[in-house]
Fold this protein.
Amino acid sequence: MGIQEQYRSEAAALLSSGEVKLVIGFGAGSTADRRRPLFARTPEEAQKFVLDAACIANLSTYLVAEGLLSDGKKVGVFLKPDGIRSVNILISEAQLKPEQVVILGYAIESGKDVAALEGRNISDFSIGEKIRKLTPPPHVIEAAEKIEAMSAEERFEYWKEEFSKCIKCYACRQVCPMCYCRRCIVDVNQPQWVSTSSHTLGNFEWNLVRAFHLAGRCASCGACDRACPVNIPLRLVNYRMGKEVRSAFDYVAGENSDQKPVLASFKQDDPETFIL
Amino acid sequence: MTRILLRNKLDDCIAAWQKAGFSVLAPVKRHEMSSFGEVRKADEMALDLVLTERTIKDQFFPQTEPLIKYKIGKHQIDSETMTPPEKKRVFFGVRPCDASGLAIDDPLFGWDYKDDYWFGRRENSVIVTIACSQADDFCMCTSVKLSPDSTKGADVMLRPLSDGSGWQVEAMSDRGTALVETISSLLQESSAEAAPVPQVAEKFDVEKVMEWLADKENFESQFWKDIALRCVGCGSCTFLCPTCHCFDIQDEGDTYQGIRRKNWDSCSFALFTMHTSGHNPRNTQSTRWRQRIMHKFNYYQGKFGVNSCTGCGRCTRQCPVDMGITETLQAITNLPR
């Protein structure tokens, strides 16, 4: 039995036993190479799940959808390591109760083979060390290094061009599991803290606000990057912020759910290089 | 015999239009994004794209637009209207769906008052449409009763020749006739055949959809809740749509002076309908998605006699969760009746 069939029957079993009220996975998409999020409430619907190397979205973003878990019931969800990492972060930030999430874990190996991950509860996934070694795909690192090699002026020009494309559709925010605020700061309009105008300055404001809010919280899933309809390489921003946090605090977000959020906790030996 | 324009005459064409006082805008790919941008040479044009990622709408209804400058004094308020630039522009290589979008939005911007910003630009622009020679999986113009060679919204219609060397030229409006006149010496008479138009399969039955939407019984249907479950509520589909036109007015500045701006807004956003009291009549994503579909295929039809969709397919093509109009309207077509 292939992993797809195995997970279909596991999802069906979770639903028929009543252990979970819903399983979030992938279904066929509008073209042969696309998969779309699929919500199954019955064992029959679970037979529509697809699991293959095209299932790249981070479905953990739905776990923080308003009202989804407020009834205390459990939800099953298909997650890759970056999704598991997101769940760890959400638990450490008190946005999820670990007992409400049943994980159908999988990994995509060398971009084509799908392997099952052992375990169903978040505590089963001892992937801390693995995550520490996880690096973004080579093309991301290559692009990041190219930008780091630029002079400050060149770098500013580069990001000015990129952010100028932004249309403030907020797709990056909406697909991000870490953007769970019920009212984002840019939607607070009494007063309007962040300009809604999508001119270069307004676009800088938005993208920098998001970058800072994700520092030490990004699971590097790349969802923002894939969602951006105007192709801004957003994950490079988050990659850089993650690197800063790692070098300053030896902290990699999402290693386990017992982590204390790095920017919301204090240690005696935290570097204080910013204090003159 | 028809008049044709050869590809190798495009540079001369641009020069002739510039000489006649026009800026020339065409599909371009810059910084990893395709959109309409000003060109000076033909090789800057990306004419082989199925569609640009950004629509031509942006050039008439920009994402942010200054309306007035104001200064609040002790005894008076001074304000200055910021009128849009009255630049003469040629849009070369517009796809039929995008050109249709402009024609669909015209009645909206001229309905309760004439929007000077929209019409100022419309009246100074000439739309040169190129019929499609390719379509992708997301194209659905035929489903909304348009076609890959629709002339709606076109001032000049170009039909690709089958050998790819150029286009048949047909003026569709007075503005188009005048534009063709400026390049008449570059055109030639030819009997060269136009390339066949690509087949775009009909994906849903728009009549059936409209009938279902018009039935008030269906407004509270479970269908809306199910179909919108995975919608993440971003504004990508609305901002990339060639007809979506909602905006918000914002004052930017300090206590004493500022600029009043017209900024794109989206019915996908929760804030779009939020009342000052905190009450939100569209408080779930499903009600917001329903609004988008109802607006396009029911309300707009009722008001202006046309659907507010050109079948460009950008909503699905760019959707982060693979949603869009096609899937929704297909599902409505197939609902048991």
About this structure: The longest helix of chain B spans residues 285-304. Chain B is about 30% helix and 25% strand. Chain B touches chain A at residues 31-33, 53-54, 63-64, 137-138, 229-230, 232-236, 238-240, 248, 250, 252, 261, 263-264, 266, 269-271, 316, 318, 320-324, 326-327 (CB under 8 Å). Residues 249 and 262 of chain B are 5 Å apart (CA to CA).
